[in-house]
Amino acid sequence: MKKIGKVLLVVVIAGAVLLIAGISLTVGWRPFIGPKARSLTSRKFDATPQRLERGRYLFELTGCEGCHSQNDWHTHGAPVIPGTEGGGQWLNMPDLPGHIVAPNLTPDPQRGAGAWTDDQLARAIREGIGHDGRALFPMMPYQDFRNMSDEDLASIIVYLRSLPPVRNQLEKTEIIFPVKYLIRSVPEPLTTPVASPDPTDRVKYGQYLVTLGGCADCHTPQVRGQPVAGFDYAGGWLMRGPWGEVSTANITPDPSGISYYDEALFLEVMRTGYVKARKLNSIMPFGAFKNLTDDDLKAIFAYLRTVKPVKHRVDNTAPATYCKLCRLKHGGGDQN
Q1: Burial class (CB in 10 A: 0-12, 13-18, 19+), 268
Q2: pTM
Q3: For residue range 308-320, what is the model confidence (pLDDT) as tens digits?
Q4: What would the DSSP string read from start to end of 164-192?
Q5: Residues 301 and 266: beta-carbon distance below 8 Å
């Protein structure tokens, strides 16, 4: 009996070692112990006219307004419904892993962010930790916003404080298993300063704006929330929601993308939501981008001209088919 007991003990210990090694080498321990999070500070951002105006501008560019407000999807450009600005909404997208809610960011103290500190907002925006300490679902693009300068972060928070309170009570986000635990590995504390970019360097500044605007997030095909390697900006992500069903476009400078665009056409598309006679789907946020300055739109275009060309035909006028290149189903996928 003692010998059997020793064998069982060895088996249990070996199993435990294998389990620990397996977890360490795969998902890691964050799903079990919670996300990384820095301690909150008492910092408060001074409100200035410059920050207020810059924050208003960034609120549109970054998609904050589009996700955290209600939109009229029956109108081209999906304008925000007046009175809902920043008031939050349930994100009605069937492919999301659960009931995902973009919270009320207005200063309403009971239903919104009125009781949240400036650093709670700052930590949520750039580090992915909610005011209640949970890991935010990465549809909130905090991984992109890590690149947001300290001054632009301050400007957005100052602007959020200026919004009229919206009395919109929302249900909590409920993410399905195991995603609700796996996303705990995504947040990372940010403890070093982030400098403002040099707007005179058009390509680098364009890259900064493209990052804050989340262009790569939408225009790169994804599998289980991860971008398909080698298809940066090459389109093909099938997006379904109240706007209908549409695959994102290839915006690389390949002939299958937007190599035929010049600067003037790019600005025209961003201002109107039309590529000549072809109407863009309103999930493309030209309704927000049309308010960017000419200089900023030109900087974005200058950067997009530098990204790697990727051959990947996406045609939303054709039936959705399986694309052998990116191995996803989307409109008119390249079959070669």
Answers
A1: middle
A2: 0.92
A3: 999 999 988 877 7
A4: PP-----PPPEEPTTHHHHGGGS-----S
A5: yes
